[in-house]
Amino acid sequence: MLTLDHVTKTYRAGAFGGGSVTAVDRVSFTAAPGEVVSLIGESGSGKSTIGRMILGLTGVSSGTLTLDGQRVRPGKDFYRRVQGVFQDPFSCYNPVFRADRVFDLVRRAYHPGVGDKEWADRVEKAVRDVRLDPAQVLGRYPHQLSGGQLQRLLIARALLLDLSFLVADEITSMLDASTRIDVLNLLAGLKERGLGVLYITHDLALGTYLAEKTVVLRRGRIVERGDTQKVFGNPLHPYTRTLLAAVPRLNQPWDPPEPVRSCAFHEAGPSATTDLYETEPDHFVACAQLPDCGRTPA
Ligand SMILES: Nc1ncnc2c1ncn2[C@@H]1O[C@H](COP(=O)(O)OP(=O)(O)OP(=O)(O)O)[C@@H](O)[C@H]1O
Ligand SMILES: [Mg+2]
After folding, report:
1. Which segments in the chain show pLDDT lower than 70?
2. Of all protein residues, whose CA lies closest to atom 26 belonging to ligand 1?
3. Ligand 1: residues within 6 Å at CB?
4. b/e burial code for range 226-258 (CB count within 10 A of at least 16 → b)
5. Which end of the chain is less crowded, N or C, counting CB atoms within 10 A of the terminal residue's CB?
6. How much distance in Å is there from the Cα of 124 to the middle of ligand 2?
7. What's this model's pTM, rounded to 2 decimal places?
8. What are the residue ranges of helices labelled H in the chain?
9. For residue 87, which atom of ligand 1 is closest to its CA?
10. By CB neighbour count within 10 A (0-12 exposed, 13-18 middle, 19+ buried), where does 165 fall?
11. Which ligand is nearest to the CA of 39?
């Protein structure tokens, strides 16, 4: 179980380190094994920062972040269990080496005792599992492969480890529709194997529908979270409503959504509370405009 409890990240900003930016502000949620949690929100809302903190790539400024009760401690044992796949797959490859070197690195670090034949079989299976043809992708250099192929090779690499948790940051944004569905099916398969997934996206991509839980982030704070059906079926925060209204319907003329109405509770500046109200079981929202706002937060 991954648990974030009032996790905050403040970056130093400005030429002389004088200013600071609170990219993530007292964010709390959990992700259980076999659960997909989708983290949605506009560009700059702090989604990748949360992913990077979970992966131990960025330190937590305050609050606690634990996996199965233990604080995240980056290292070999940790990365055997937790891996990330990112938006830009090119940045994960060294252009000088063949793309499948990423598998050699996994072998060297985690499976040094596995024989050549056995390892080649495992790699081939992982590559087929991500719907790639080993003959077409293995042995090639990164520039000879498409973004989607590189992305899927990274997921294949994750499959070769004994993973418990995957951070998937915008992994489908550069894939075409049919490849995207392949990758989403893959995530559904991982979920069935008991893997927890944080699915980060800035739009309500298909993947959102894989998620049993949804966390809506705006300017570093959670505005709404809970059971996906409840959050999308009955969105309460104006920002969540705007996000939903912005999804074009193919069979209807485009009707641009109204911009987010200002929310006094939420726009009150850095000192504003991040308390959420439980409006129904497993559905939490931060909004002063709720009729029952003002009661004690959950
Ligand atoms: N290393 C850093 N130093 C200073 N500020 C940073 C750093 N990384 C991110 N930020 C700032 O933190 C905020 C959140 O950034 P983050 O990358 O987490 O957003 P995001 O929600 O992933 O956006 P996108 O959808 O565009 O990927 C932004 O204002 C960004 O400028
Ligand atoms: Mg991002």
Report:
1. 15-17, 248, 254-274, 287-298
2. 43
3. 11, 13, 21, 23, 41, 43-49, 202
4. bbbebbbeebbbbbbbbbeeeeeeeeeeeeeee
5. C
6. 31
7. 0.87
8. 47-54, 76-81, 101-110, 116-129, 134-137, 147-159, 177-192, 228-233, 238-245
9. 27
10. buried
11. 1
